[in-house]
TrEMBL record:
Residues 38-64 are annotated as: Disordered. It comes from the Eukaryota. This is NADH-ubiquinone oxidoreductase 30.4 kDa subunit, mitochondrial. Residues 49-64 have a biased composition (Basic and acidic residues).
Amino acid sequence: MRKDFPLTGYVEVRYDDEKKRVVVEPVELAQAFRNFEGAASPWEQVGPGRDDKPALPEPETPKA
């Protein structure tokens, strides 16, 4: 199945109970379309990263 088709159309078709007929209106999107294919995932590391673990204390050696 192809996945490269738009998810929204250019018109909205619905039945209006007050007018008792089918109404065709242009779609108003609340947010502009954003393409995420070229951007890196927020979960991928960008650089070498860093180790935030605290350093472990050196074990004490028993004195004889």
